[in-house]
Design a protein that fits this description.
There is one protein chain. The protein has one domain: Methylamine Dehydrogenase, Chain H (7 Propeller), CATH 2.130.10. 3% of the residues lie in helices and 48% in strands. The protein has 1 helix and 28 strands. Strand 15 and strand 16 form a beta hairpin.
Length: 324
């Protein structure tokens, strides 16, 4: 690998400019992402195993293993349940759409050679957004045809569609709001320190969104969880909470709760202008991916140690397996 590609990959992994505490797991075992199928019967999981796993959502048995070019950084099941958007990085073939019925792979073009780590389908399922490791936001039709490509920032690590408007919030070297109708980009300064923002998620109401950052352990900047109100002034609430970076966050549909994956699973209740932790389940190795099922009765998390963990509605552990 040449030096430019190496540096780009390190930045994409969040390991170059944001030193963290010593890991207690092997980097090859990391599971980056998990996503429930729309019917809640299956869970797609992926990470550094160079495999896309399809698991039974009740007992976590592996139903399918699909070889992938390299690290899976993000997974997003289409609303029709027939295809999965798979983001990968440091791979020649790049991100792709996987058809769960025919097993067809449709590789997406025009994406950075060092890959991407952010994907999301529009609420109506007609458009796929991909944020790549060079900071480009790309829009695709369901068949994988490129619609649009625009430069947003240095790197995009996460993105989230507004539930009713043509707006996308992105995380990366900063937090940005992209208006797809006007192509205007607005950035939000969340903290004075220069940190990498890893994840972002619109609240189901569409009134505000949350973002989680990496912090910087070498400079003693703690990781922070932010709540941003973009439509009614610069109001914002930030919380520390975690000792490790916030890797994944997600609101529970129809509720005031948001789940975060970091040094453990936290369930926060947000009532502007305050937020408090309702539940905290410590985890070693730390957690990377998470997803609620559609009715909020179950939550899945993935860890740096290759674990997939199911949690019930009271956030008690139901099942745990290790993928290899």
């Amino acid at each position: 690998m040449n030096i430019k590609l190496l540096l780009s990959s390190l930045i994409a992994l969040g390991l170059l400019n944001c030193p963290r505490q010593k890991d207690d797991y092997d980097v090859e075992t990391i599971l980056w992402s998990a996503d429930y199928s729309p019917d809640g019967k299956e869970i797609a999981v992926g990470g550094n195993h160079q495999k896309l796993f399809i698991l039974d959502a009740q007992n976590l048995e592996v139903k399918k293993e699909i070889a992938t070019p390299n690290t899976i950084t993000c997974l997003d099941w289409h609303p029709d349940g027939k295809r999965i958007a798979v983001a990968v990085q440091i791979a020649e073939s790049g991100p792709f759409l996987y058809n769960t019925q025919t097993t067809e792979h449709i590789f997406l073009d025009s994406i950075s050679v060092v890959g991407a780590r952010a994907t999301a389908w529009s609420p109506d399922g007609n458009t796929l957004a991909v944020g790549d490791n060079e900071g480009f936001l790309l829009l695709y039709q369901k068949d994988g045809s490129l619609i649009q490509k625009m430069k947003v920032e240095k790197i995009i690590t996460g993105l989230s569609w507004h539930p009713t408007q043509n707006l996308i919030a992105t995380s990366g070297s900063q937090i940005s709001l992209v208006n797809l109708d006007t192509e205007e980009i607005e950035s939000f300064p969340l903290r004075e320190e220069e940190v990498l923002y890893l994840c972002v998620d619109w609240h189901w109401s569409g009134l505000f969104f949350a973002a989680g950052d990496y912090g910087d352990f070498e400079k003693d900047y703690p990781p922070m969880l932010h709540f941003i109100h973009p439509f009614d002034g610069p109001k914002m609430k930030s919380e520390i909470g975690s000792k490790l970076e916030y890797r994944s966050i997600q609101w529970e549909e129809g509720q005031a709760n948001i789940a975060t994956a970091s040094d453990g699973l936290r369930i926060w209740e947000f009532r502007n202008p305050w937020a408090k932790v309702l539940k905290h389940k410590k985890s070693s190795p730390p957690l990377w991916g998470l997803d609620w099922n559609r009715d909020g009765t179950q939550l899945v998390t993935t860890s740096g140690g290759g674990e997939v963990i199911l949690w019930d509605q009271q956030f008690k552990e139901v099942k745990r397996v290790v993928l290899k």
